[in-house]
User: What shape does this take?
Amino acid sequence: MTTATEPYVLNIGPQHPSTHGVFRLRVVMDGERIQDMDMVVGYLHRSMEKLAEERTYTQNIPFTDRADYLAAMSGNLGYCLAVEMLSGVEVPERASYLRVIFAELQRIASHSMANGTFVNDAGAWQTPLMYMFRERERILDLFEMTGGARLTTNYMRIGGVAFDPPPEFFPAIESLVSDLPDRIDEYAELLIDNEILLARSRGVGTITAEDAINGSLSGPMLRGSGVPWDLRKAEPYCVYDRMDFDIPVGRNGDAYDRFLVRLEEVRQSTKIIQQALDALPAGPHKTDTPLALRPEPGEAYGRVEGPRGELGFYVVSDGGSAPFRFHIRAPSLINLSLLREMAIGASLPDAIVALGSVDIVVGEIDR
Amino acid sequence: MNSTLRQGRRRPAAKVPLGLMIVGAVFALGFLAVNAAIGYVVIDGRLDGQWYDIRDLGIAVEELKVQLDAINDDQPSFLDDIVGQHWMSYAVGALLGAIGILSFIGGALLALIWIERRLIGRMQIRRGPNRVGPYGLLQPVADAVKLIQKEVLMPDGADRILFLLPPAIIFVPMMAAWGPVPWAPQMAYLDINVGVLYLIAVSSLTTLAVFLAGWASNNHYALLGSMRTVAMMISYEIPLSIALLSVVLITGSMQLSEIVQWQADHNLWLAALLPIAMLTYFFSSTAELNRTPNDIAEAESEIVAGFHTEYSGMKFGLFYAVELGNALLVATLVATFFLGGWSLFGLEEWIPGYLILFAKLSAAYFVLVWLRGTLPRFRLDQLMRFAWQYLIPLSLFNLIIVAVEASLLARWDAPGLVSLGLFTIVNWGAAYILFRDWARRIGYQPDAGGPRRAELTQQVGGIEAAHRMGTAT
Assistant: This one.
């Protein structure tokens, strides 16, 4: 007896526990196996790039919070770098160090979230996520202490940062930095050698180094595939050239390697923060710039190594007080583009794990 | 490791009001006094076999039945032909047992929801429900009220009757399976001599309701969930049954009360004697129960809620209650089959058997919650392979060993300490060797698949750097 099966269409999302936002996968499945997949994005489109053309350069900073809402600091930093490049504003030394500290704190927070939700997608019942949230919570406390906001921080300014951290900030961050290595060991105990996690994520969503480069991937996705590419080293901005840190790379390019790379990057970020705190110079935290900045006509592309990859801001000026064109190179969108290749032929649970390992933020994809 | 790190923020010690302390002290003294009185009566032997023996409520029911039968004796003889001679004692006994089991499950379910959520909260360094009532104790009640108030939605294209039936159907096997559980030497509602067979038969009926629910919902997620359930149940019924078979072989009975009695007589828990059967049974049960790490039938991150995706309101509440009730049942059965049931090395003379059983089933339930709070989930094919390639051969090996031991036990006239002690050592050795080597024999390599740490480098570059480092794949 033969059993005829026929493929059917399954809509994963826009409301689904594993799409991490309003994002839809239209999957053609045969039983549990995925035959075809369409990614439907745009549910969260807020027209940021067009709106930015009507606002001054300073007024645009909050948009960069809301693009990648899990890494607001990195967004702020990339945009401010682009505008500073465009207008030639100098940044004081102290501000550069503070930017590094906050960008790295943001990376830790974002990677904690990414790893937590990744293990959640692999089926853990929230526990690793809650553990990761513990650290993220302390980092958000630091943000609140300094800039008043936890998630959409709006902290960086063109020519520096908005506020100098208050005195109670430094003991808090010192204790965080001294705790973090222990905490990472704790996750390693719980997760790295976990046979179930290994069985679920080893060899799942594999991307070769060539494919990763051809797909223009960046961040942990690229490094997980074995390519040691990190903008903080390749094209150092702020004061990263004075920091001593390593680039973690994976060997297999699978979901597990991306998880390992993110975990190791948290360790490296801790190192960077410690060095930046030790070397933090005194001085002003901001140069005075006019609120309605009018850069010379021209264009600039500022890019930073965000938690998800190369986070770029392309700003064109026509000499007015608002950018003529504002574009965000969103790493989530570009990293997501290879999901189809990862998912076709895989089973549904594998596709979900692969999606979790991409670490998307839909706010950034749709902008 | 700094111990304060794991605890998070310290909170100030709670202040206990004086009135509460006095009430507590009075309760504690009363508790002690009652216990002393019980102790006195027990030592005196006045309680043994009396209807007011609170250690075994079964005696009271039996006594009541005798009284009722005496009333029945006076009924006109034509009634004997129609309803029988013991109809009253039968009806009252059944009613009492049913009420007892129902109220226990009802109360335990409400308590368990709270306990499980608090425990998981502790494991996840948060507090769990703590707003409704003292310590959040009324949270399950609030949830139930909310669920009752909610509308039960019926999806378009759902089969009306088949959609509404499963929440009711699924309740029946869960309740029925509680029948043969012995709570004390004479306290079992349905002490049939094929208890094990009955349990396996009844508990597999759940699958039917689950499949109905998934099919009738007209939803792909629900269908996927129910297909997974059926596949999983069929696979895991086998190792589960074989594990129970080894229990039956060694104790020589399918009657649950006899199995517990055997453990009480030999002062030996079957968990110590049959480690493979115990672990196989426990793991297979997690698959039957859809609990982590085998909760693939309602894998939230993949298929939302599996077979009950489309159910809302109290229909969902029923599925949820049955799920918890089944978990409780499995904990009870583990306690009965493998942890000695109501017996506790002679202490059952002092402590009511049902309290001992309750303590044991709570321990088993805690392990279920613990697993849930710790582990990620298997994939369906991995779980299937695990059942067919690993658990089934393993439990068959175990069955052979146990069969040999059982036949030796029947012929060999050695003292229990010698024979059973020897068998325990042999079984643990076999468990160690089998668990370890069978996995490697079917292709498991503990260190395969490359390093478990990201490689660190100071180099930076594109594909050339990757090739230079040898990390390009």
